[in-house]
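From the methods appendix. Each design record in this collection lists the tokenized structure first, followed by the designed amino acid sequence. Records were kept in a plain field format so they could be parsed without special tools. The example shown here is representative of the layout used throughout.

RECORD:
FOLD TOKENS (153 positions):
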């Protein structure tokens, strides 16, 4: 039986991401996003869930550089629980999403431009994914094959 732990979320940051570094200088960023529930009772305002997010290394640096409070964000990751003790010695449990991929979720206008004239993304593209890790390849790793070549696997 295969285990699956995949979370996809789109929401807005409730505050600026907080970037820290571990003792071994690994970047880690934590923040919370508000995600509206898909159903609201007629005549009532939609309810939002506030979800804690953690990301590491280049993804943490990406989020801290390009995202600020109120900005929409798309996250792909996994759910993680951890146990810890508070300052009074009471056992606590935290549930958070560990983000593997992070993308902008800004709406685009009909001509493909970002709707907001000024944004805090600098020279970043309007839609970009955070770097991927592991055995993932980059666009530079691909090469064109002619029709008569055999597949490389």
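DESIGN:
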């Amino acid at each position: 039986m295969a285990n699956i732990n995949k979370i996809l979320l789109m929401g807005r940051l409730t505050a600026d991401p907080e970037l820290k570094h571990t003792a071994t200088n690994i970047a880690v960023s934590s923040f919370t996003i508000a995600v509206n529930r898909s159903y609201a009772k007629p005549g009532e305002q939609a309810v939002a869930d506030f979800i804690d997010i953690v990301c590491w290394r280049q993804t943490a640096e990406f989020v801290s550089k390009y995202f600020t409070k109120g900005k929409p964000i798309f996250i792909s990751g996994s759910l993680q629980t951890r146990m810890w003790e508070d300052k009074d010695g009471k056992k606590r449990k935290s549930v958070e999403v560990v983000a593997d991929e992070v993308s902008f979720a800004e709406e685009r206008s009909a001509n493909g431009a970002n709707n907001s004239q000024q944004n805090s993304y600098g020279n970043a593209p309007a839609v970009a994914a955070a770097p991927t890790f592991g055995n993932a390849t980059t666009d530079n790793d691909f090469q064109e094959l002619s029709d008569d070549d055999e597949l490389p696997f």
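APPENDIX NOTE: The helical segments are 57-66.
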